[in-house]
């Protein structure tokens, strides 16, 4: 009886872990998020440019201009939103993730 309970608990846990990986922040309603490039760049300046500046270029990635950020939008989405492995020390705040996610999903406008 208790073994079944334990197995059920693990099965449920795995299911929700995968759901979060496949559909991260699926509850974000982008119609309520003001996701401009200006806001995106200020998040990157505060949270990413320590490492991703022309001077440091961690992993060969510089995120200082609109063209650079746009060119890396897919990998930014993967690392900062889906995997949450960027920044390496602590994931972005929920509001920051929402802004990045909505900016990327609206086609990376330069606004
Ligand atoms: C403390 C330094 C540091 C900070 C802060 C940081 N990164 Fe990185 N980043 C790295 C290093 C080192 C690599 C190369 C190793 C790797 O890929 O894990 C990297 C690689 C990357 C890559 C390219 C790798 C790939 O998977 O394509 C992207 C995109 C990236 N970071 C995005 C970001 C974003 C977005 C932020 C801010 C939200 C950020 N990083 C903050 C150090 C940092």
TrEMBL record:
One of its GO terms (molecular function) is electron transfer activity. InterPro entries: Cyt_c-like_dom_sf. This is Cytochrome c domain-containing protein. It comes from Niastella vici. The lineage of its organism: Bacteria, Pseudomonadati, Bacteroidota, Chitinophagia, Chitinophagales.
């Amino acid at each position: 009886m208790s073994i079944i309970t334990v197995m059920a608990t693990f099965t449920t846990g795995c299911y929700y872990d995968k759901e979060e990986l496949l559909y991260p922040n699926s509850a974000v309603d982008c119609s309520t998020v003001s996701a401009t490039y200006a806001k995106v760049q200020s998040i990157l300046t505060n949270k990413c440019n320590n490492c991703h500046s022309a001077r440091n270029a961690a992993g060969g990635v510089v995120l200082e201009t609109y063209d650079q950020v746009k060119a890396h939008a897919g990998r930014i989405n993967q690392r900062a939103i889906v995997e949450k492995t960027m920044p390496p020390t602590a994931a972005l705040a929920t509001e920051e993730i929402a802004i990045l996610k909505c900016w990327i999903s609206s086609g990376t406008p330069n606004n």
